[in-house]
Write a structure and sequence with these properties.
The complex is a heterodimer of chains A (121) and B (463). Chain A has 121 residues and is of the alpha+beta class. Helices cover 16% and strands 23% of the residues of chain A. Classes of the chains: A alpha+beta (121), B alpha+beta (463).
Chain lengths: 121, 463
């Protein structure tokens, strides 16, 4: 066992892939494809990941955040209007392709990495 | 001859790749032709890469790549005697984009000795016409946009309407063998022939959505396109590369790609609803989908896309490796901003309102800025200065004023003048006009084809 407490794992530790992309010029959409149902249970837990958490992570209006929980795919999908106009002077991510990182790095408390949450293969 | 309009038992769609010009292996087309397609459908565009392509009316793809793909597809369509449909020609679907692809097609047909009847369907819209529609209350915003101001329509360099399947059906029934369309929904080009041949709308629109990105719905998206076979109860999807596979997960997951809502998708004629769709493996590489629904809309609508010039941009880029400045990079960037702003005011007599300026610290926080979850120190930082001004000359003048500071600016406590690393000479790159998308609105229409104009290469189809 390590002598120092390890930081809580990140959401990405339980995921096959977490990605972000434009959904048309005016929306950003992100998906977390989780490794298994245990990982899905974490991502889909409303007390861990909800509209307000996304609003705080991305500095957007919580009332405009849409969350879709899709158990058949072990996936959670999140959409919100683009905070910065696409390709404007202040837009640093034209395809919104790197905007998944704050979500992927979200710390997951009370869920240490266990054998059950590891990838199957 | 054009496809029979008699009721079919099944209809096959061959989609070679997600975009014309993206490339595919010729063998995948041979494989697809052996499966007996009724149409070859391929997308030629997207808004994904930003408003420049619509605003300037130029393509993201290069002519050589489009020509290479189009040659193989024209040959395949002629061999199989089935229609070839290309949507959103020239990336944005402007009239110039349609003519650009049509010019490439003409050249290929002359070289290959092909004689196919081509329909060009134009989608560009006139601001005057749209202002009348706006006045009549027939233009409505889509979230997150608000009402449209008539001046916004006037400010656009190009406006296109996104056609549904109806103009394609009309052109095929008129004898077109190749359709080169302006802006169309990604799904419409694949849906047109199945709908024309009597396939049910639910499976047809769902299959069209699944094939629109080519191999994206397979386990190896790099291996080329896909083939969908629609029947009266559902559809089957399989890759065009025998070594590639579709799985229930890979197919179902594609409904999430680049969509805000993964269950419902609006088309001009109605809404695809896949909430109750089931995805079952037929074997190791084919998936059968059933349970998709299509709800016809009470009001047929055409979505608009428009882009306008926001100014002219000039870009300058310098690199910093000095550990002391990198360790204090936020303070340094704030100092650069203050001094540059002051110098621009002194020398060019411009205030903050006259131009826009963005300082981006690549390697530090350029992409995510204050939402970046990792604040750890960088080793080197690229400093990009992006200027937007009402004229190119002004934008470049501003960048030139900034140049000595981007080369030499020390922090106040430093007792020497550092020199930073420019990667190119000259330091400034003129980017030309910059554009933004300003329309996210729909028009209520009586006719699904009325806003689009179809021109045929020959008046009479082959005898």
């Amino acid at each position: 066992m390590p002598e120092h407490p390890t930081p809580a794992p990140q959401l990405s530790d339980y995921a096959i892939e977490i990605r972000s992309k434009n959904a048309g010029p005016f929306w950003v959409t992100m998906e977390t494809f989780m490794k298994d149902s245990a990982g899905y249970a974490i991502a889909a837990d409303d007390s861990f990941l909800n509209e307000q958490v996304i609003a705080d992570l991305y500095r957007v209006d919580a009332t405009q955040v849409q969350i879709f929980r899709i158990p058949a795919l072990n996936a959670v999908k999140i959409s919100f209007p683009r905070p910065v106009t696409q390709a404007s002077l202040r837009d640093r991510d034209i395809h919104a392709g790197q905007h998944h990182v704050p979500l992927a790095c979200l710390r997951v408390p009370h869920h240490p990495l266990t054998d059950e949450a590891q990838p199957v293969s | 001859m054009p496809p029979s309009t008699e009721a079919a038992a099944r209809v096959g769609i061959l989609t070679p790749s997600g975009m014309l010009g993206a490339g595919f292996a010729p063998e995948t087309i041979d494989y697809g032709l052996a499966l007996g397609p009724d149409v070859i459908a391929i997308d030629g565009g997207s808004t994904d890469s930003g408003p420049h392509y619509l605003g300037a009316g130029v393509a993201k793809t290069t002519a050589s790549a489009v020509s290479r793909d189009l040659r193989l597809l024209l040959r395949a369509a002629a061999t199989a005697d089935i229609p070839l449909i290309v949507g959103s020609c020239g990336t944005s679907g402007t009239d110039s984009g349609v003519d650009w692809v049509a010019g490439i097609a003409d050249q290929i047909m002359a070289e290959e000795g092909l004689d196919l009847k081509i329909a060009r369907i134009y989608s560009e819209q006139d601001a005057g016409f749209l202002k009348k529609e706006l006045d009549a209350g027939r233009v409505h915003p889509l979230a997150p946009h608000g009402p449209l101001a008539p001046e916004t329509l006037d400010s656009c360099t190009h406006i296109v309407g996104m056609m549904g399947h109806e103009p394609f059906v009309e052109a095929i029934q008129a004898g077109a063998q190749v359709i080169l369309a302006g802006r169309a929904t990604d799904t419409a080009l694949a849906a047109a022939v199945p709908l024309m041949l009597g396939m049910p709308a639910g499976p047809t629109w769902h299959a069209a959505k699944i094939v629109e990105c080519g191999g994206q719905c397979t386990t190896d998206p790099r291996a080329g396109g896909v083939f969908a076979t629609i029947d009266h109860n559902g559809f089957v999807i399989e890759p065009l590369d025998p070594a590639n596979a579709c799985t229930p997960i890979s197919v179902a997951a594609h409904m999430l790609y680049e969509t805000a809502n993964p269950y419902r998708m609006r088309e001009p004629a109605g809404t695809l609803d896949v909430s109750d769709a089931t995805y079952a493996p037929l074997d190791e590489r084919r998936v059968r989908v059933e349970g998709s629904r299509f709800e016809p809309a009470e009001q047929h609508t055409i979505k608009l896309e428009g882009a306008r010039v926001t100014g002219y941009e000039t870009l300058s880029f310098s690199g910093i490796r000095d550990p002391y400045i990198v360790a204090n990079i936020d303070r340094w960037a704030a100092l650069l901003r203050n001094i540059v702003t002051e110098r621009i005011n002194q020398t060019l007599k411009l205030t903050d309102d006259d131009y826009g300026l963005d300082i981006r610290l690549y390697g530090h926080n350029a992409i995510l800025q204050d939402i970046d979850p990792d604040p750890s120190t960088a080793r080197e930082v690229g400093v990009m200065l992006l200027v937007n001004a009402p004229s190119q000359a002004t934008a470049t003048a501003i960048a030139k004023v900034a140049n000595p500071l981007m080369l030499h600016l020390p922090l106040p406590e430093m007792h020497y003048l550092p020199s930073f690393a420019f990667a190119t000479s000259p330091a400034e790159t003129e980017r030309g006009p910059a554009y933004e998308f300003v329309l996210n609105h729909v028009v209520d229409v009586e006719s699904a084809t009325g806003m689009f104009r179809t021109h045929y290469s020959r008046e009479v189809s082959r005898a």
